């Protein structure tokens, strides 16, 4: 399970994942499929990570659980 992170953390991890996916694409896939397609894949992955990453719990939710 991933830890609860703030929006800034998810932006940071999305940027890092975007770079990482592009580097992996250059290393292993570029000779078969061009890099521009890898950039699209990396962008979609980063956007999904931003949208569906775990969010911090709201203070109201924490009070209800107690």
* Average residue-wise pLDDT: 84
Number of helices: 3
Describe the largest sheet.
Answer: none
Uncertain regions spanning at least 5 consecutive residues? none
Rg, nearest Å:
16 Å
One letter per element, helices H and strands E, the order comes to HHH
Give the beta-strand count. 0
In which range does the helix fraction lie? Answer: over 70%
Structure classification: mainly alpha
Question: Termini separation (Å)?
Answer: 22 Å
**What percentage of the residues does DSSP assign to strands (E)?**
under 5%
Overall geometric form: elongated
Architecture overview:
- With 66 residues, this protein is an all-alpha fold.
- 73% of the residues lie in helices and 0% in strands.
- The model has no long low-confidence stretch (mean pLDDT 84).
Main traits of this protein?
66 residues; 0% strand; mainly alpha; single chain; elongated
List the helices and strands and how they pair.
Layout: H1 7-29, H2 35-52, H3 59-65
Helix pairs in contact: 1-2
Gist?
This protein has 66 residues and is an all-alpha fold.
């Amino acid at each position: 399970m991933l830890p609860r992170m703030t929006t800034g953390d998810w932006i940071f991890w999305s940027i890092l994942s975007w770079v990482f996916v592009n580097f992996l694409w250059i290393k292993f896939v570029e000779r078969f499929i061009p890099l521009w397609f890898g950039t699209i894949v990396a962008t979609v992955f980063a956007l999904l990570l931003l949208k569906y990453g775990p969010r911090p719990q709201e203070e109201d939710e924490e009070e209800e659980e107690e």
